[in-house]
């Protein structure tokens, strides 16, 4: 299919590094095309187009408003600093553009609600750009967690743990927007912690915890931005505890582990698979120690899930499918994605409030 015949036409607002990955994803998705790039200057937009070998048919704009005024743009992807999200997401919705928003979605849930209300009032699709939800491995992992014979159930005193961390370079820790309080005040909690919280809530079928408590291990930079933190989440009815660790100053981790009544589950690379063409997870079911406790009766089983296109292209494909349903068939936006983001934002806010209030427990 020729590029100009593809279904949904995307504009990218902002030339952040992650936009390079998503522009490639739009090209790889079978039902989307990239038609416009906007930056705060036309020079930056031209530079992005050259560096990423974009088609000369992609329009280049020196302001975000110019892109939003383009009637040929159906949807926008926004890799802007978090502090700018509410302004531009609301403006995009008002212009009738569907919104794919980089995470974290907002500084707090009030700002998030302003964005979601704008999208809902204009009937446009909202989704945050957490790519891992769209990998077929994720659906396969959910199958295992839902299999009562293999996994049992997440029950009292069960533990869920997630971590997302990487070791920022001195340049990153000094100059990246994610360590600037006026641009991304949430720091590691908003960047890597967003994934941890989302993964835990995904495991719990988006049920909010009863209590959220940050642990007294938070590290901040001189501007007060979080570089590393830990927190726990507790579900009173089920008596389930989840913990997570997020950081800009530790070795690379992207882990999720869940213990059930009859099985355990572990994935090491849930955010970005080691290989974009396939991804794995492992599980152990019915494990017991053998006689004399010198070994186990079973070993972990590996499950591999192959893909034709990378997970970010699957995200674009799914978003475009939803937009096409709205645009061509009068369907309603899928509210699941906005609610998933909102619940994640609520827990993120609770962790931040716990840190700011001396690590007190926050009731949800």
From TrEMBL:
Domain GFO/IDH/MocA-like oxidoreductase span(s) in chain numbering: 148-265
Gene3D superfamilies in UniProt: Dihydrodipicolinate Reductase, domain 2 (3.30.360.10), NAD(P)-binding Rossmann-like Domain (3.40.50.720)
Organism in which the protein naturally occurs: Rehmannia glutinosa (Chinese foxglove)
Top-rank taxon: Eukaryota
Lineage, uppermost ranks: Eukaryota, Viridiplantae, Streptophyta, Embryophyta, Tracheophyta
Family: Belongs to the Gfo/Idh/MocA family.
Annotated protein name in UniProt: Gfo/Idh/MocA-like oxidoreductase N-terminal domain-containing protein
InterPro entries named in the record: Gfo/Idh/MocA-like_OxRdtase_N, GFO_IDH_MocA-like_dom, NAD(P)-bd_dom_sf
Residue ranges annotated for the Gfo/Idh/MocA-like oxidoreductase N-terminal domain, each copy included: 8-127
Residue intervals passing through the bilayer: none
Entries under SUPFAM superfamilies matching the protein: Glyceraldehyde-3-phosphate dehydrogenase-like, C-terminal domain, NAD(P)-binding Rossmann-fold domains
């Amino acid at each position: 299919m020729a590029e100009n015949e593809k279904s949904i036409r995307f504009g990218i607002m902002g030339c952040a590094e992650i936009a390079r990955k998503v522009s490639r994803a739009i090209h790889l998705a079978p039902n989307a095309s990239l038609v416009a790039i906007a930056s705060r200057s036309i020079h930056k937009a031209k530079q992005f187009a050259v560096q990423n070998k974009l088609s000369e048919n992609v329009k280049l704009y020196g302001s975000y408003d110019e892109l939003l005024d383009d009637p040929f743009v159906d949807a926008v992807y926004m890799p802007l600093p978090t502090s700018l999200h509410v302004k531009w997401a609301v403006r995009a919705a008002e212009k009738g553009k569907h919104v794919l928003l980089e995470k974290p979605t907002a500084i707090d849930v009030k700002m998030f609600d302003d964005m979601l209300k704008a999208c809902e009032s204009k009937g446009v699709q909202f989704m945050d750009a957490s790519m891992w939800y769209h990998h077929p491995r994720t659906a396969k992992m959910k199958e295992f967690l839902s299999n009562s014979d293999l996994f049992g159930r997440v029950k009292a005193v069960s533990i869920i743990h997630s971590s997302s961390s990487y070791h920022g370079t001195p340049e990153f820790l000094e100059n990246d927007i994610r360590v600037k309080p006026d641009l991304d005040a949430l720091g590691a909690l908003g960047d890597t912690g967003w994934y941890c919280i989302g993964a835990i809530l995904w495991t719990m079928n988006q049920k909010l915890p009863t209590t959220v408590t940050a642990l007294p291990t938070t590290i901040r930079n001189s501007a007060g931005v979080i570089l590393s933190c830990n927190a726990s989440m507790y579900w009173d009815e089920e008596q389930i505890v989840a913990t997570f660790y997020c950081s800009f100053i530790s070795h690379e981790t992207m882990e999720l582990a869940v213990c059930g009544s009859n099985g355990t589950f572990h994935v090491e690379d849930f955010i970005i698979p080691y290989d974009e063409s396939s991804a794995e997870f492992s599980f152990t079911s019915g494990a017991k120690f053998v006689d004399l406790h010198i070994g186990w009766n079973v070993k972990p089983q590996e499950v591999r899930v192959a893909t034709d296109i990378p997970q970010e292209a699957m995200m674009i494909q799914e978003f475009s499918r939803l937009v096409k349903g709205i645009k061509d068939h009068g369907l309603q936006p899928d509210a699941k994605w906005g609610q998933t983001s909102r619940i994640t934002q609520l827990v993120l806010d609770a962790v931040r409030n716990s840190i700011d209030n001396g690590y007190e427990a926050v009731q949800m």
